[in-house]
Amino acid sequence: MSRILSLYTSVIGKKAIVAVTGSLMVGFIFLHAWGNLKLFAADTAAGVPEIDLYAEYLRTIGEPIFPYSSILWIIRIVILVSLVLHVICVIQLAQHNRRARPVRYQHARKFGEATIPARAMLYTGFIILAFIAVHLLQFTFGVLDPSRFAQGAVYGNLYRTFQLPAFVAFYVGVMGMIAVHLYHGIWSLFQTLGSDNPDRNKGLRALAIIVSAGLFIAFSSVPVSLFAGGMSQPPSQAKNVLTSDSR
Description:
This protein is mainly α.
């Protein structure tokens, strides 16, 4: 236990925690994006949207060994703990850096020494935290706008919410901030792992850009497509045979 605490209290340990928890969350974001893209899949023969079936499938993972929805909640808890540790360690590292350099630079740093994404990491991180809370309240618990929420009707919940221009602008805007955050986070992960090298830094940065831009497009395509009228209206509640709660 003392070794674990010693590792946690060290700068290297905190950076390792940030890297590991960040990797877990990036993996979760990839899976979440993949699930969201099922919105564009054709409905089943019974008229149930594919994304609704996918949401129901997530709740049945592990059955009958594990109770209904238990594995999904375990994943949620792991991601939540990772998020909390990630935020705490990032804040502590920022405080450590300020203590190590109490006097501001006397001369302006060269362009590129600290990129805009790097300087904005803490701020975009807090915005992302607020977004996660809004996202859960809107699409998981349905308490932000109960009139647009129906249990188990994931497609319908998304469709009704993203008919509102304010929600579309909010989600796309936050997706842009997440992309900026991910870009620097992925690049920092390469540095933490010691993968950065002058000979391959351009390639690693390009990879970080491709990943973050790809996720931005994947997530933003959902609200934009629904708002632009490119998707069909949700099936009637009578057709939606699923009774589980929405993601």
